[in-house]
Amino acid sequence: MAISSTQFHSAKEALVTRTKIIAAVDLLHKVSDSKVVNEAISLAESHSAEVILVFVIPDQQNSYAQAYIPKEMHDNVLAEAKRDLASYEASFDWRGVEHETRVLRGVVYEKLIECADNTSAKFVVIGANRPSVKDLFIGPNAARVSRYASCSVLVVRQ
Predict the structure, then answer these.
(1) Is residue 37 a contact partner of residue 23, using CB atoms and an 8 Å limit?
(2) What's residue 124's pLDDT?
(3) How far is the first Cα of the chain from the last one, in angstroms, to the nearest whole number?
(4) Phi, psi (5° rounding) for residue 49?
(5) What's the whole-model pTM score?
(6) % of residues, the chain, pLDDT over 90
(7) What does the DSSP assignment read for 8-38?
(8) Nearest residue to 52 via CA among 152, 120, 6, 110
(9) On the chain, which terminus has fewer CB atoms closer than 10 Å, C or N?
(10) Half-sphere exposure of 85 (CA within 13 A, CB side)
C-alpha cells in the first residue's frame, strides 16, 4: 500500500516530539521571574521548542506540621496556584511559541528535575538571586537543579 508524500510527512511530524523547555517560576516573585519566562520564550523560538511553565508549591515532606494541614486546605492552595499561574501565563507575549502550565507540589528542585526528566526537556530555565549566607549551607534551588539535572540549565540572574 503506497502512501502520499503528505501522509508521510504528517506521520513523521506525529512521531517527532517537539523539544521541551521548562521555565521554572515562583509566583511570589512574578516581576523578577518574568525574565525567566522571556528567556524561555526566546530559547524556544530559536530551538522550535515548546515551553512548560512550572510552579512548584513547596511542601516540607518530613515536616511534623504537614500531617495536621487539612486536605481541603491543600486542595485550595493547588486550585489558587493553578488560577494564579494561568493569569501569569496570559500576561506574556508568547510570539507563537506553544506552551502549557503545570503546578506541582513537593521539594522544589526535586520536582523540577523530575518534570524535566519526565518530559525529556532539553533545557530548564530558572532564576537565581545573589546567594545569601544561608544558601552556603542549604543551597538554592537553582544551584541544585543545575548540579543534578540531566539536561542543560540556563540560570537567569535577577
Answers:
(1) yes
(2) 98
(3) 57
(4) -115, 170
(5) 0.83
(6) 66
(7) HHHHHHHHSPPEEEEEEE-GGGHHHHHHHHH
(8) 120
(9) N
(10) 23
